[in-house]
Design brief:
The complex is a heterotrimer. Chain A contains nine helices and no strands. By secondary structure, chain A is mainly alpha-helical. Chain A is elongated, with a radius of gyration of 18 Å. Chain B is mostly helical. Chain B has one domain. Chain B has eight helices and no strands. Chain B starts with 10 loop residues before the first helix and ends with a helix. The N terminus of chain B is likely disordered. Chain C is of the alpha/beta class. Chain C has a domain of about 100 residues: P-loop containing nucleotide triphosphate hydrolases (Rossmann fold, 3-Layer(aba) Sandwich). Chain C is built from six helices and eight strands; from the N terminus they run βββαββαααβαββα. In chain C, helix 2 crosses helix 3. The chains are: A mainly alpha, B mainly alpha, C alpha/beta. The interface between A and B is medium-sized, with 29 and 31 residues.
Chain lengths: ~220, ~250, ~210
C-alpha cells in the first residue's frame, strides 16, 4: 500500500522536475495576483495592512485552484489513470498520493512564499507566524476538496472554469477562518480557536474527500 | 459500492426503482400534491398578506417573509433532497433516483434565487440598500453557487448516467459542507457587522403571523413535490423512449 | 499431455454493455481457458474497446457477470498506452511495473531489447515514433507475470516485422499457460484463434 503510494508520488515529482513550469506557474500567479491589489486599490500601507490577510488567502485559493488541473487530467488523457485504477490497491490511496503531490507543489511553496507577499502588503509582523501556520493547516484542506472537483471533471473537455465553479464554494469556510485567524493575530487576540477549527476541517476533509474522489474517478472512467 | 449489494430491502423499494412504476405512481400522487399546494399557498398568501398584523418595527415590508422564508427553506431542503436521491442512486444503482435528483436541481436553484431576490427587495426599505452581507443572505448566495456547480457539471457531461453519478457525488459533498459553510458565515458575520435587523430571527412571532408562514412552507413543499414528479416523469419518458411501455403509453 | 482440460481464467455470462443510453451488445457469453487466444471482432463502435474495459474492471457491469475463477491477475494495455511523454522508456516501464510487480533496470533493459528498442532505453517517449511508443508499452508483456492479457488494438502502428514479433510473444505466452483477449481489425496467423464477433451478436439479438 505504501509502496504503491510512494511509486505514484515519485513518478509525479519526477514529472514536475522534468517540467518545472507546472509548479512555478501557480506560484508566479500567486505573487502576481497579490501584486494586483496595491495597483487596483491603493499602495497605502495602512489600508493594505488591513486587507493583507484576505488578499493572501484569496490568492492562495486561486493559485491552488489553478494547480488542480494537473491532478488527474494528464493521467486520464494518456491512459495512466486506467493503469493506476487497475492496480490491486484501494483507489483512495491513489487520491491521497495525488493530493500529497498537489500540496507539495502548490500549498507548501505558498506557505514558504507567504512572508514575501505579506511584506509586500505590509501585514503586521506579529501576524506573520499565524498567516504561515494558517496556510500550513488550510492548504491541505484545499488540496483535498480540490481533488474531488478534479476527479469529477476527468473526461470533461475544457474543465478549467467548471472546476472552479465546483470547488470554490467548498473553499469558503477555509477562507473565512484563515483570514479570521490572521486578522485576530494582527489585533493581538488569541488565534488558537481559529487554528483548531481549521485543523478540524482538515481532519474532516481527510475523512470524506478521498472516498468521494475515488468514487468520482471510477465514474469518470465510464467515459474513457 | 459493492459492499451494499448484500443489503436486502423491502420489495416496494425495488418497485420504486422501476421507471414505469414510478411513472404510474407519480400520476396517481400528483393531483393530491397539486390540490394541497393550491389550497395551502392561496390560504397562506391571503392570510399573510392581507390579514396578518403589520410588524411593529418594519411595518408592512416584513410581509415578504411569506415568500422569502419558504423559498429559503425549500432551497436548502432540496439540496439535501438532491444529495439523498443521488446517494440512493449510487448505492443501489437506481436510475430513477438520478432522474429525481436531476429534476430537483433546477427547482431548488430557482427557490434559492427567489429567496435571494426577495431578500434584496426586503433589504431596500429596511437597510436602505438591496444587498447587505447579512449572514442568511450570504449563506443563501453560497448555496446558489453550490447549485450552479451541480448544474454546470450536469451539463458538461453528455452521458446521462455518468452525469447522474458525478452530480450525486458533488451534491453529497456539498450538502455535507452546508452546515460548515453556514456556521463559518454566521461566525464571520458576527465578527464583521452585527446587523440590527435580520429577516427571520424574531424572538417571538405571534401565532397570527406564524401560522400563515407555516401554511406557505407546507404548501411550497407540496408544490415542489408536484413539480419534481412532473419533471421526473418527463425525464423518464425521454430516457425510456425506446422501451415498449412508453410506446404503448404514447399511443393511448 | 492434453488429458486434463486447462483451467478457466475468465468467465463471461450474459454480459451486456450500454453506453450513452445505447445498447452496444448483450447476451455475451464465453469462457477463456489457459492457453487460449480470443480475438474480439466487429466494426467501429460495436463495443470492442468497451468489452475489454469491462473485462479490465474499468467499466461497470450493469447486466451479466464477469468472473475470474482462478486468481484475478490481468495485464491490460489499452487504446491509450499509459506512457508519460516527459519520461524515458525505462522510467515509464519502472512506474508501470511498480504498480504490480516491481522490476529492475536490468529486467527493463532486456524487455526493451526484446521489443526491438535496444539503445532507446533512456530516450524520452516524446521523441519516439508511434510504433516505437507502442513497443514500449508492449515491453510490459515481458516484465509482468499476469496470466491473462487484455490488449486493445496491439497491432496498430506496427510494421510487418513488429506484427510477426508480437505473434511470437503471444504464442510463447499461450504455451506457458497464459491466455489473452485482444481486439484488432487484422487477423493473426496463429493457429486456434477463437473469435468473438460483436457484429453477429448484434444481429442475433435483433
Amino acid at each position: 500500500m505504501m509502496s504503491f503510494m510512494f511509486a505514484i508520488i515519485r513518478r509525479d515529482l519526477l514529472l514536475v522536475m522534468r517540467y518545472p513550469a507546472e509548479m512555478l506557474n501557480p506560484l508566479m500567479f500567486f505573487v502576481l495576483v497579490v501584486a494586483l491589489f496595491p495597483l487596483g486599490i491603493s499602495p497605502e500601507a495602512s489600508l493594505l495592512s488591513q486587507v493583507a490577510a484576505g488578499i493572501v488567502w484569496v490568492a492562495a485559493l486561486l493559485a491552488t485552484l489553478l494547480a488542480l488541473d494537473i491532478l488527474f487530467k494528464a493521467d486520464f488523457a494518456d491512459g495512466s489513470l486506467e493503469q493506476l485504477l487497475m492496480a490491486h490497491q484501494p483507489t483512495w490511496i491513489l487520491v491521497l498520493a495525488k493530493v500529497i503531490v498537489h500540496w507539495l507543489i502548490s500549498g507548501l511553496p505558498l506557505v514558504l512564499l507567504s512572508p514575501l507577499v505579506a511584506s509586500m502588503l505590509f501585514l503586521p509582523a506579529e501576524a506573520l507566524p499565524t498567516l504561515m501556520f494558517s496556510l500550513l493547516v488550510g492548504t491541505p484542506t484545499l488540496s483535498l476538496f480540490g481533488a474531488v472537483g478534479a476527479a469529477l471533471v476527468t473526461g470533461v473537455k475544457n474543465a478549467g472554469m467548471l472546476i472552479s465553479l465546483l470547488v470554490l464554494p467548498l473553499y469558503i469556510p477555509v477562507l473565512i477562518f484563515g483570514t479570521g485567524a490572521v486578522a485576530a493575530a494582527a489585533q493581538g487576540l488569541p488565534v488558537s480557536g481559529y487554528l483548531a477549527y481549521m485543523a478540524a476541517m482538515l481532519i474532516f476533509a481527510l475523512m470524506i474527500t478521498p472516498w468521494a474522489a475515488a468514487m468520482a474517478l471510477k465514474v469518470g472512467q465510464m467515459q474513457g | 459500492m459493492s459492499w451494499f449489494d448484500n443489503w436486502h430491502l423491502p420489495k416496494w423499494f425495488y418497485q420504486m426503482a422501476s421507471p414505469k412504476w414510478f411513472y404510474d405512481f407519480g400520476a396517481r400522487l400528483q393531483p393530491w400534491f397539486a390540490g394541497l399546494a393550491l389550497i395551502l399557498i392561496s390560504w397562506g398568501l391571503v392570510w399573510g398578506l392581507l390579514y396578518a398584523p403589520a410588524d411593529y418595527q418594519q411595518g408592512n415590508s416584513f410581509r415578504i417573509i411569506y415568500v422569502h422564508v419558504p423559498a429559503a427553506i425549500l432551497g436548502q431542503s432540496l439540496f439535501l433532497f438532491m444529495a439523498v436521491a443521488g446517494a440512493i442512486g449510487l448505492i443501489w444503482k437506481i436510475k430513477v433516483a438520478f432522474m429525481v435528483a436531476r429534476s430537483a436541481t433546477l427547482v431548488g436553484a430557482s427557490f434559492t434565487a427567489l429567496a435571494l431576490i426577495t431578500g434584496a427587495v426586503w433589504g431596500k426599505p429596511t437597510w436602505g440598500t438591496y444587498w447587505v452581507w447579512d449572514a442568511r443572505l450570504t449563506s443563501t448566495l453560497i448555496l446558489l453557487f453550490l447549485y450552479t456547480g451541480v448544474m454546470a457539471l450536469n451539463q458538461a457531461i453528455p452521458d446521462r448516467s455518468v452525469a447522474g453519478r458525478a452530480t450525486a457525488i458533488l451534491a453529497i459533498i456539498g450538502s455535507i459542507n452546508i452546515p460548515i459553510i453556514k456556521y463559518s458565515v454566521d461566525w464571520w458575520n458576527t465578527l464583521h457587522q452585527p446587523s440590527t435587523f435580520t429577516l427571520t430571527s424574531k424572538p417571538s412571532m405571534p401565532p397570527e403571523m406564524y401560522i400563515p408562514l407555516l401554511l406557505m412552507v407546507i404548501g411550497c413543499y407540496c408544490f415542489c413535490a408536484w413539480l419534481i414528479m412532473q419533471r421526473t416523469r418527463n425525464e423518464i419518458l425521454d430516457q425510456e423512449r425506446q422501451s415498449s411501455w412508453v410506446a404503448r403509453y404514447l399511443e393511448d | 499431455m492434453q488429458l486434463t482440460t486447462p483451467p478457466i481464467l475468465l468467465q463471461v455470462a450474459q454480459l451486456a454493455c450500454e453506453r450513452d443510453e445505447r445498447c452496444l451488445f448483450s447476451g455475451l457469453q464465453f469462457s477463456v481457458r489457459a492457453g487460449e487466444i480470443w480475438h474480439v471482432k466487429g466494426p467501429n463502435g460495436s463495443g470492442k474497446t468497451s468489452l475489454l474495459r469491462q473485462l479490465a474492471g474499468l467499466l461497470p457491469v450493469d447486466k451479466g457477470d464477469i468472473s475470474f475463477p482462478a486468481e484475478k491477475s490481468l495485464l491490460y494495455i489499452g487504446h491509450k498506452l499509459a506512457l508519460k511523454e516527459q519520461l524515458t522508456a525505462n522510467e515509464n516501464l519502472a512506474w508501470l511495473t511498480a504498480l504490480s510487480t516491481p522490476s529492475t533496470d536490468q529486467q527493463r533493459y532486456s524487455a526493451l531489447a526484446k521489443v526491438g528498442l535496444r539503445g532507446f532505453e533512456e530516450s524520452l517517449v516524446a521523441q519516439l515514433s508511434a510504433g516505437q511508443k507502442r513497443r514500449v508499452a508492449l515491453a510490459r508483456l515481458h516484465l509482468q507475470t499476469a496470466p491473462l492479457w487484455l490488449l486493445d488494438e496491439p497491432l496498430t502502428a506496427m510494421d510487418q516485422e513488429g506484427i510477426k514479433d508480437q505473434q511470437g510473444w503471444f504464442s510463447e505466452h499461450l504455451k506457458k499457460g497464459g491466455a489473452m483477449v485482444f481486439t484488432s481489425h487484422q487477423d493473426l496467423t496463429i493457429d486456434g484463434v477463437k473469435v468473438i464477433d460483436l457484429s453477429t451478436l448484434e444481429e442475433a439479438r435483433v
